[in-house]
Amino acid sequence: MNNTAQSTSTPAASSLSTTAPSRGNESSQQSASSPEPASCSSSALVDVEDLARGVSSSPATAPAADGEKKQLYPSVPFYGPCIVRNLKPGETKKWCTCGLSKSQPWCDSSHRGTEFKPLVWKVPETPQTIYDICNCKYTKKPPLCDATHMSCPIDVYKRQKACTGPHTDAIKICSACGWTPGTVLIDL
Ligand code: FES
Ligand SMILES: [Zn+2]
Known about the structure:
Layout lengths: L15 E2 L21 E3 L40 E4 L6 E4 L23 E4 L7 E4 L19 H10 L26
Parallel strand pairs: 1-2
Antiparallel strand pairs: 2-3, 3-6, 4-5
GO molecular function: 2 iron, 2 sulfur cluster binding; metal ion binding
InterPro entries: CISD, FeS-contain_CDGSH-typ, MitoNEET_CISD
Protein name: Iron-binding zinc finger CDGSH type domain-containing protein
C-alpha cells in the first residue's frame, strides 16, 4: 500500500488518526464538549495501484483573485478527509482551497501571494458531531468530503507531469497543476 500524499504541505503525522471516516453529511447528536482539533484519517488513504484503473475526475473550482473564472489547481495535502468533531453550529470557518495551509483543513493564510482564496463556510445550525472535511481540495461539495479523493490522484499526477510550469523554488504553487516546491512527479 502506497501513501499518495505528494505535497510538502502534508499535515504532521501526529495529527493523523486511524478512526474510520464517516460519510460527509452523516448526522448525529451534538456533543456538549468543547471543540477538538481536526484529525485526518489515514484509513482513507488511497492505493496508487488501485487507482491505475482510475475514474476520471474534475477538480473543484477555486476563485481567482481577479474575479475571472480561471480554473485553479490546488496542492493536495492528503488524499482523504479530515474528521472534525464538535464544530459550533453557526460558527464561521475558512476552508483552505490552495492546499498549502499547515492547519488543514482550515486556512492559515499560506495562500497569500497566490491566486487562491479560502472558502468561507458557516457551520450548519443542525446539530452534528462529526464532519468529514475535504482535504484533497477536489470535492464538488466544498468543504465537505464527497469521496473525490478516491478517483482524483491519477488526474493530478498526469496534470503535474504534463505541466510546463514554470516549476521553480521561487513559487509557492503552480496553479495550472498544483505543483509545489518539493513535489515528486510520479511516472504512471
Ligand atoms: S491557506 Fe489555503 S486558502 Fe488560505
Ligand atoms: Zn504546473
